[in-house]
Amino acid sequence: MDRTVLERFPAGGPRGHWPAEEYAGARREEGVAARVVMDLASDAFLVVVEQRAPERTSEAEPVRE
After folding, report:
1. Cα–Cα dist 26/34, whole Å
2. What is residue 41's three-state secondary structure?
3. 11, 21 in Cβ contact below 8 A?
4. Cα 4 to chain centroid, rounded
5. How far is CA 48 from CA 1, 14, 60, in A?
6. pLDDT tens digits, one per residue of 28-50
7. Burial class (CB in 10 A: 0-12, 13-18, 19+), 27
8. Rounded to 5°, angle at Cα 56 from 50 and 57
9. d(CA 28, CA 10)
């Protein structure tokens, strides 16, 4: 599965205010399966959606008539 980052929010937001959760909630209301994850390396909250990687199809043999 691949993840796409929709938005980044710094972890040091004001107390009692959760902008990443609010943004993700608004996307979920639009039908997008967004969730919040913490990126420890950059000290930020990321709003992400997971997408399935395209399935590889094997090359079909030619049809003989």
Report:
1. 9
2. coil
3. no
4. 4
5. 12, 22, 35
6. 999 999 999 999 999 999 999 98
7. middle
8. 140
9. 21
